[in-house]
Design brief:
single chain, about 180 residues, alpha+beta, Pnp Oxidase, Chain A, 2 domains, 8-stranded antiparallel β-sheet
């Protein structure tokens, strides 16, 4: 019922609530409301990703959203995730590989005398892309190295059987922006 008026006028993007006549399918067609909080510097965005310990990967199946926190690696405008060969993520991504992802760091509650003026300090990155399964063993090994580099800074030797059994998801990033709150 909330969007019925807009839907009668024209179809709208369900993410940014602007007409689909906008130049993009996602929020990159709409301007951030609080421009003073927007982060557009690619180096700063990548630094936020490097400092993050978890990536939240969001997907959708039949208009039902699903989000999951994951260990990840980032390199060359792509995200890499290691997962089991069965489960909800793979089932959903097989039907719809469009994803949204989120990172956040520097968490602090900002208190106020007035309850409605409480808030949070944080820095975040939100982006969109397409997810693909990596099947090639050499590429799987490279993706695992990228993930391990993120957490440990070193490379490892992997058991061949484990590489065969592992599912590796690569997200090719199409667009991402950052946002800083009251820092």
């Amino acid at each position: 019922m909330l969007f019925s008026q807009a839907d009668k006028i024209h179809r709208t993007c369900t993410l940014c609530l602007v007409p689909l006549a906008c130049s993009n399918r996602y929020n990159d067609g709409a301007e951030m409301r609080r421009k003073e909080r927007e982060i557009t510097d690619r180096a700063v965005i990548e630094d936020i990703i490097r400092q993050s310990s978890v990536c939240r990967l969001a997907m959708s199946e039949d208009n039902n959203p699903y989000i999951v926190p994951l260990c990840f690696g980032y390199k060359d405008n792509a995200l890499y995730f290691h997962t089991g060969r069965k489960g909800g993520k793979l089932h959903i991504l097989a039907k719809n590989n469009r994803v949204c992802f989120e990172f956040d760091i520097i968490h602090e509650v900002v208190k106020s005398e007035e309850p409605c003026k409480w808030g949070m300090r944080y820095v975040s990155v939100i982006g969109f892309g397409k997810a693909f399964m990596i099947e090639d063993l050499a590429l799987k090994r490279r993706a695992l190295d990228i993930i391990m580099q993120h957490y440990d800074g070193t490379s490892f030797t992997y058991n061949e059987e484990a590489i065969h059994k592992a599912a590796i998801i690569q997200v090719e990033i199409e667009h991402m922006t950052g946002r800083k709150s009251r820092l």
